[in-house]
Design a protein that fits this description.
The complex is a heterodimer of chains A (about 425) and B (about 450).
Chain A (H helix, E strand, L loop, with lengths): L3 H20 L17 H11 L6 E2 L16 H10 L14 H12 L4 H4 L3 E6 L1 H16 L5 E5 L3 H9 L4 E5 L1 E2 L4 E2 L1 H10 L5 E5 L12 H14 L2 E6 L9 H4 L1 H8 L5 E5 L12 E6 L3 H19 L4 H12 L1 H31 L8 H4 L4 E3 L4 H11 L1 E2 L5 E3 L8 H12 L1
Parallel strand pairs in A: 1-12, 3-4, 3-7, 7-8, 8-9
Antiparallel strand pairs in A: 2-10, 5-6, 9-10, 11-13
Chain B lengths: L1 H23 L41 H11 L6 E2 L16 H11 L15 H12 L4 H4 L3 E6 L1 H16 L4 E6 L4 H9 L2 E6 L1 E2 L4 E2 L1 H9 L6 E5 L12 H14 L2 E6 L14 H8 L4 E6 L12 E6 L3 H19 L4 H12 L1 H32 L7 H4 L4 E3 L4 H11 L1 E2 L5 E3 L8 H14 L2
Parallel strand pairs in B: 1-12, 3-4, 3-7, 7-8, 8-9
Antiparallel strand pairs in B: 2-10, 5-6, 9-10, 11-13
Helix pairs in contact in B: 3-12, 3-13, 4-12, 6-7, 6-11, 8-9, 9-10, 12-13, 13-16, 15-16
The chains are: A alpha/beta (about 425), B alpha/beta (about 450).
Chain lengths: ~425, ~450
């Protein structure tokens, strides 16, 4: 807990607990001073949605993919992989660093099938507990080996990013990213922040499909950012949670990373298979750190393992097997590429439909950001009050920052949603 | 269902096994020794502009984990008589890892359930799994459960559950010291130190008797500051196999309650020690029965053979359900920035087994078989040493319980046994009984006999 106020609350709680113990040891709880924690804002939305009896209710809160019937999806490639795994003869511990095979495949996705960096074994990589776990391992690693460093986080970002680096005790700052006026990228301010940060600063970058805004730099802008990073010798840490989900093409979605690699940056990268393989609850991801050479990569990997060992010893095997089976089998991989494109295309179609529906209602506001933005989320520009009205009047559930999960939009509800948005923004 | 599963398995087992071994192993990277990296030049693909050295250039390679290092060395040894008594994973009489039949059945049920989706679990994990796990360790009739006073969260096996508990204590408990037994599992001190607690030791193992240093234990806990946290192995102490008797547990409980020490149980072997799930939970239940608070971390790695699935639970027994609710909400804040929510697969398997009385009963039978095989290995090893007239008292092999035996051999003797007899074990003299079979017991007995004779 970072703030002095938090520390004081905790300290006074501790004193209260100690006093309670002193008075009546047998009846007092050690935990009577424990405050109820604030609810997670995103998950709280789904809870509220589930509790709503209205037949018209729409959940565009949590970022999990839904098909056009609003149902969660298990990809066919995943089903097939799981059929092969069921009844397996071995559930033994993975190595501390995780499944070698899964990591190999994950690296190819991020760095390129024919990447020389992979051939040269320069990438320290470990299997991680999805994107969260990968970010946390990196944050702990950053804290341990560069204790004076801090992390620059885009404004806004996925809320849990702040929690992760805070719990790792890495001080954080924000850099400009989203431009409310244009509902796009505040490129000038972002570049200023990059230039003004001390040399060698750590930056968290969303590789594609920025969460929550859906606003990504263009390829040209990425090149400029990369160039400025070179000048300033900044460390780029990419969180890639949506590879394949943005454009439908994993190679294209990795463009930003490839630009930075071409420019010679020693990047760090968190990958998640939660969305692009629909493996949410399996917690499969990968953390990689590009090093100067193989020996350094081996050393860095060994140190990452030292951080994982007292956290969970070794990562879960099941999801890793699914990923490695799919990616290493050409037929299954093709199937996966088709299915991920299908998901991305449906979302792109819903963006178009939502925008057209609102425009057709005669809104005099601009809604082009709906189709300019990319990935699972649309930063609608709605105010918290407008969001509250969407919920109370129309039973539409989304986070109060106006973020709409496009995956929750269907041909069945897009008209209703468009009308509701139009109503609250007139 | 069983026949079709069996034939399905038989027909594609080969393909699956090779697929899986390919996925699981991969070649091991050559591990360089601990040298600083800065001396080496970047490879050809490193960027050519100035200032492109890595910020992590001075990182040294971490030392090999001592336990896992044993298996690495074992794998490298070409000897046909080599025996791996290092890592604590169960092996059959044929020396093979074991997937329990109930686990296979449960997995098939899950796979064949088309409505099964894989979305995120709640931060606290699979609710059904949590309830069933609490019942398993505390007993279905536990008043703490009936009164809704238990906050349970799914954790990443034992390690993850301990870590979440440790982090919670460091944030919310007034006393930041945890006492752990000497010796204990190598990962315990790291887990608690990284959680933010100060680690101290209490005497536990007595090398002279190869049993419990009960007097030392009581003394050390008596002099602990009021409120200090005390880590207790619920059963089958790792690495010594030495457990307190029930009478001794009762004394420990009384002492701890009188001093307000907070019990934190690590239960990694429930059912595996004696073969009885209830008997192996007695220590924990004793503490819960007196109405006091405690923490308990559970692992299903060994007793359900789910090692790599990382399934466990952390329970915090509180004085009231209101407190338990608030505690649970704070546990979420520890978990969310660590991994958001736990993996679903292993917990689903466990829940499937625990809630189905047929599967549950089958499980208890398989569990007892594993425990019995280990107990039989103890008997065989003891008899083999007796037959050879190996000097010394080896009765501790029979008295110790669970997967491990603390032989009392010193590191020189261990090194001798490795070099001359290809016996792989940790240098503290710990052997994993699960790694023994009737076939390999004589060889081990020969090795011990020779080591004791040649080296003191």
């Amino acid at each position: 807990m970072a703030s002095p106020m938090c520390r004081e609350i905790v300290a006074s709680g501790r004193r209260a607990a100690a006093a309670a113990w002193g008075r009546t040891m047998s009846t007092a709880s050690w935990w009577s001073h424990v405050e109820p924690a604030a609810k997670d804002p995103i998950l709280g939305v789904t809870e509220a949605f589930l509790a709503d009896p209205s037949p018209d209710k729409v959940n565009v809160g949590v970022g999990a993919y839904r098909d056009d019937n609003g149902k969660p999806v298990v990809l066919n490639c995943v089903r097939e992989a799981e059929r092969r795994i069921a009844g397996n003869l071995n559930m033994e511990y993975l190595p501390m660093g995780g499944s070698i095979k899964m990591i190999e495949e994950a690296l190819k996705l991020a760095y390129g099938d024919d990447s020389e960096l992979i051939k040269d074994k320069r990438i320290a990589s470990v299997q991680a507990l999805s994107g969260t776990g990968a970010c946390r391992l990196f944050a702990d690693f950053q804290r341990r080996f560069l204790p004076d460093s801090q992390i620059y986080i885009p404004l806004p970002t996925w809320a849990n990013h702040h929690n992760i680096w805070r719990d790792a005790h890495v001080p954080q700052r924000t850099f400009h990213y989203y431009h409310p006026e244009t509902k796009g990228l505040d490129f000038a301010a972002m570049m200023d922040d990059i230039k003004n940060a001390p040399n060698g600063s750590f930056f968290l970058l969303h590789a594609c499909a920025h969460n929550p805004t859906g606003v990504d730099p263009t390829e040209e802008q990425w090149r400029e950012i990369s160039y400025q990073f070179k000048v300033k010798n900044h460390f780029p840490f990419f969180d890639m949670a949506y590879q394949g989900f943005a454009t439908g093409d994993p190679e294209r979605d990795a463009k930003a990373i490839r630009i930075f690699l071409e420019d010679g940056h020693m990047i760090g990268c968190a990958q998640s298979f939660a969305k692009n393989m629909g493996l949410y609850g399996q917690r499969v991801g990968c953390l990689s750190i590009l090093c100067e050479n193989e020996i350094q990569a081996v050393a860095v990997k060994s140190q990452l393992q030292q951080i994982a060992r007292p956290m969970y010893s070794n990562p879960p095997i099941h999801g890793a097997l699914v990923v490695s089976i799919i990616l290493s089998d050409p037929q299954l991989k093709s199937l996966w590429l088709e299915e991920v494109k299908g998901m991305a295309d449906r979302i792109i179609g819903m963006r178009t439909a939502l925008r057209e529906n609102i425009e057709k209602l005669g809104s005099n506001m601009s809604w082009e950001h709906i189709t300019n933005q990319i990935g699972m989320f649309c930063y609608s520009g709605l105010t918290p009050e407008q969001v509250d009205r969407l919920t109370s009047d129309f039973h539409i559930y989304l986070t109060r920052n106006g973020r709409i999960s496009m995956a929750g939009v269907t041909t069945g509800n897009v008209g209703y949603l468009a009308n509701a948005i139009h109503q609250v923004t007139q | 269902m069983d026949d079709t599963i069996a034939s399905h398995l038989a027909s594609s087992a080969e393909r699956r096994l090779s697929t899986l071994s390919h996925h699981l192993t991969g070649h091991s990277a050559s591990m360089a020794s601990e040298i600083p990296i800065s001396a080496l030049s970047p490879s050809a693909t490193a960027g050519s502009y100035g200032g492109v050295s890595s910020v992590f250039v001075n990182i040294l390679q971490a030392p090999e984990d001592p336990i896992l290092g044993v298996t690495v060395a074992y794998n490298k040894d070409p000897s046909p008589v080599k025996v791996n008594l290092g890592v604590g994973a169960y092996r059959t009489e044929e020396g093979k890892p074991l997937v329990l039949n109930v686990v296979r059945k449960a997995e098939q049920l899950l796979v064949n359930n088309p409505s099964g989706v894989k979305e995120y679990l709640p931060i606290t994990g699979l609710a059904e799994f949590n309830k069933l796990s609490a019942k398993l360790i505390f007993g279905a009739e536990s008043p703490a459960i009936r009164e809704n006073r238990v906050a349970t969260v799914q954790g990443l096996s034992g390690t993850g559950s301990l870590r979440v508990g440790g982090e919670f204590l460091a944030r919310h408990y007034f006393e930041r010291t945890i006492y752990i037994p000497q010796p204990t599992w190598g990962n315990h001190p790291k887990i608690f130190t990284l959680s933010g607690l100060a680690v101290k030791y209490y005497r536990y193992y007595d090398p002279a008797t190869r049993g419990l240093n009960f007097h030392g234990l009581l003394e050390d806990l008596s002099s602990a500051p009021p409120g200090a946290i005390v880590l207790l192995h619920a059963c089958a102490h790792n690495p010594t196999g030495v457990d307190p008797t029930l009478e001794q547990w009762e004394q420990i409980r009384q002492l701890m309650r009188s001093k307000g020490l907070l019990p934190f149980f690590d239960s990694a072997y429930q059912g595996f020690a004696s073969g009885s799930l209830d008997a192996d939970a007695q220590s924990v239940r004793m503490f819960v029965a007196d109405g006091g608070e405690c923490l308990a971390a559970q692992s299903y790695a060994k007793n359900m053979g789910l090692y790599g699935e990382r399934v466990g639970a952390l329970s915090i027994v509180c004085k009231s359900s209101d407190v338990a609710g608030r505690v649970e909400s704070q546990l979420k804040l520890v978990i969310r920035p660590m991994y958001s929510n736990p993996p679903i697969h292993g917990a689903s398997i466990v829940a499937t087994i625990l809630k189905n009385s047929e599967l549950y009963n089958e499980w208890t039978v398989e569990l007892k078989m594993m425990a019995d095989r280990i107990i039989s290995m103890r008997r065989q090893l003891f008899d083999a040493l007796s037959k050879r007239g190996t000097p010394g008292d080896w009765s501790h092999i029979l008295k110790q319980i669970g997967m491990f035996t603390f032989t009392g051999l010193n590191s020189d003797q261990v090194a001798f046994m490795t070099k001359e007899f290809h016996i792989y074990m940790t240098s503290d003299g710990r052997i994993s009984m699960a790694g023994l079979s009737s076939r390999t017991v004589p060889h081990l007995a020969d090795a011990i006999h020779a080591a004791v004779a040649r080296i003191n």
